[in-house]
Amino acid sequence: AQKVTQAQTEISVVEKEDVTLDCVYETRDTTYYLFWYKQPPSGELVFLIRRNSFDEQNEISGRYSWNFQKSTSSFNFTITASQVVDSAVYFCALNSRNTGGFKTIFGAGTRLFVKA
Amino acid sequence: ETGVTQTPRHLVMGMTNKKSLKCEQHLGHNAMYWYKQSAKKPLELMFVYSLEERVENNSVPSRFSPECPNSSHLFLHLHTLQPEDSALYLCASSQLTGGTEAFFGQGTRLTVV
Fold first, then answer.
1. CA–CA distance, A89 with A87 (Å, rounded to integer)
2. What does the pLDDT look like over B29-55, one tens digit per residue?
3. If residue B99 lies in a helix (H) or strand (E), which one and from where to where?
4. Which of A71, B3, B75, B94 could form a disulfide with B102 if both were Cys (CB 3.0 to 4.6 A apart)?
5. Is the Cβ of B107 closer than 8 Å to some Cβ of chain A?
6. Residue A28: which region, alpha, beta or left (left: phi > 0; alpha: psi -120 to 50)?
7. Å between A55 CA and nearest CA of chain B
């Protein structure tokens, strides 16, 4: 079975604080892909990053960084020096190499509020 | 135009109405998807089209009927919906290669009265 768990339903921080969004996944596949998407109030999900199961290197992109740890099946997302524009719902997602389809499983999302 | 475009953005319909949601992508992708996003529930994959052929139908009620006339367009025909079908319906597209990211439209906010 595949599953993505985002245990944090809502997080509220003050601008300039650092914040980490947790993501834990389950899959029996050895080849899989993990994603983070951002959903601002306008509605569309915006792709942020993709990681495949063979690449455990952490990645930094500006104020965003991702920590992928296969040992704990986690793919956490940190925003450094948060800004009001970071307020959105963030989704972690899993796509595994299975036959017969292109299933991407999404977590329930974490709603981030950044206050000025 | 670029990206994935969905129309209408908002739709209110009665339970006996028939309406259609439209999705158009200008990214050259060959797979398209319909997702349902309800309040306090995870994104639910409804349908997947790969090269205009339906490859996934996640036990979606027959009152939802998808149509993919070509690789750039995807429709979701709605008929005799229930109030619990009220949700944000998101269209997405991607390349066929497994593990590629999807690009989403802004969604259609559907309210069934």
1. 7
2. 988 999 999 987 888 889 988 877 777
3. none
4. B94
5. yes
6. alpha
7. 13
